[in-house]
């Protein structure tokens, strides 16, 4: 069977430019990381919606913490797992795209990974919420406002890191999308999806910074998840094409 690349290009030249065995293994692992990261992120969303968890910035996260602790920890662990898998996937994307457009691939991957690391640093909010919740349960009425203020202060630090990461990742996606333009094995639809959602996500992140109460951060995270699910699946397809073209 003849395997066609998603966009026309010289498949012989493409195969000659990579180390076949090593790159097929990288593409398999990278593709699985992208798909698994998206599954983990969607699972975190399902935990939130199924259990009816309050928004992370709502004070109910503090006042009702004993009742939602298990669900909140599950959400955070799934979210952190998704970010780690996305970072690994982007590193493999760089490895795949570096011969097509070295500058865009490197700058895009580095920017996106810095964003994911920053977001990961803000993922374990329950670690700061748990001790404050314990104090809240035993505090006198006059002390409750002070504990809530301390929790809001801690939350603002996590929100700042999240906003920074949500701004950096879409910028990285736009650059990776530009690198995909010169890579014959990536479908044009995936390329434009990456550039489009990256651009929209960048604008949304700026709005979220200007208006911290908006939902643009959450929407941007959902958009980047869709992109990385698509690139992960595409990576697995590229690996299959390489395998069949190699005979």
Give the structure's gist in a few sentences:
The chain contains 9 helices and no strands. It is an all-alpha fold and 247 residues long.
Describe the overall structure.
The structure is a single chain. The chain is an all-alpha fold. It has one domain (11-245). 80% of the residues lie in helices and 0% in strands. The protein is elongated, with a radius of gyration of 21 Å. The termini are close together. The model is unreliable at 1-19 (pLDDT under 50).
Task: Summarize the SSE layout with pairings.
Layout: H1 11-16, H2 20-51, H3 60-63, H4 65-97, H5 102-121, H6 126-138, H7 144-180, H8 188-210, H9 216-245
Helix pairs in contact: 2-4, 2-9, 4-5, 4-6, 4-9, 5-7, 6-7, 7-8, 7-9, 8-9
Keywords:
single chain, mainly alpha, 9 helices, 0% strand
Given the C-alpha coordinates, what overall shape results?
elongated
Task: Determine the N-to-C terminus distance.
Answer: 10 Å
Backbone CA Rg: 21 Å
Overall number of structural domains: 1
Count of helical regions: 9
Mean pLDDT: 85
Number of strands: 0
Helices and strands, in order, run as: HHHHHHHHH
Largest sheet: none
Structural class: mainly alpha
Percent of residues in helices comes to over 70%
Percentage of residues in DSSP E strands: under 5%
Q: List the uncertain runs.
A: 1-19
